[in-house]
Every structure is written in structure tokens, then in C-alpha cells.
Amino acid sequence: MNWLADILDGTNRAIAMVVRWLVLAMIVIQFAIVIGRYVFGVNSIAAQESVLYLHGAFFMLGAGYTLLVDKHVRVDIFYAKLSDAGRRRIDIFGHLFFLLPSMTALLYWSWPSVRNSWKILEGPISVGGIEAVFLLKSLIPAFCILVMLQSLAILIRLFSRRPTA
């Protein structure tokens, strides 16, 4: 089953390799917005919204990779002091009873809004903005699916590994 976990890891790695360039694009666009506004007196709502879209895409599509490389926020104060077997049990419990159910609930409850947004091809957030809010809302189910896939890969590895103590 580790081959399946490798495929799921590879999916999030590949997406992260693409998504990381969104940060550079976001910086360049924001710099252009500031120069345009304060040097040339030109303003663009669509350009400002594009920074919002890129920021959302970066964080939502990069969440699975963050879980893969174990750089997410841990709140458990006892985790670091536990044995490998104790950490394994907490990880399994957390994925099965917190992460997967919360992602499933978010996917379930957000889906009608995303579906309706696509049905009407929901327009811009602001007048003169990007006419693609439906794409922005699509990041929600993508986020849920990528995090769930990574959680599944982690669980496969946790269940295939033998506890040491």
C-alpha cells in the first residue's frame, strides 16, 4: 500500500511545485499595483483582486503539501514528549476523528455554494473586478480533497509501520 501513499504524496508535491510560483506572481503584481497607484496615479480593481485570488490559491492548494512536510500547526503540548508509539496513536486518532471528518463536513457544506457559483458563473467581488468568483470558490473543495488525500497517505504509512514501543 505504500505505493498508493507515494502517488498521493506525489500529487501534493507536483501541485506545490506549480503553486509556489503564485507567490512570485503575487509579489510582482502587488509591486506593480503600488507603482501604478503612487507613481502613475493608475488603479485597477482587477489587479487588486488578482492578488487576492493568487493568495487564496497559494494557501488552499498548498495545504496538502504543508501536511505532507509536517509544517502545519500542532497544538498538542504532550506530543513532543511521547514515544513513537504514542505519537503514532495521536496521529491516527487526529486524522481519523478530527481532520478527515472536518474536511468531509467542509466539502459537504461548501459544495452547494460552489455548484451554484459555477451554475451562474458568479461574477466579480467588486465592480470592475475579475469575473471568476466561481474559480475562487472552487478552491474550497480542492483544498478539502488535497488535504484528505494527504491524510490518507499519512494514515497508510502509519498503519503499515510497526510501533516500536
UniProtKB/TrEMBL annotation:
Its main location: membrane. Pfam families: DctQ. Keywords: Cell inner membrane, Cell membrane, Membrane, Transmembrane, Transmembrane helix, Transport. One of its GO terms (cellular component) is plasma membrane. Part of the tripartite ATP-independent periplasmic (TRAP) transport system. Belongs to the TRAP transporter small permease family. This is TRAP transporter small permease protein. It comes from Tropicimonas isoalkanivorans.
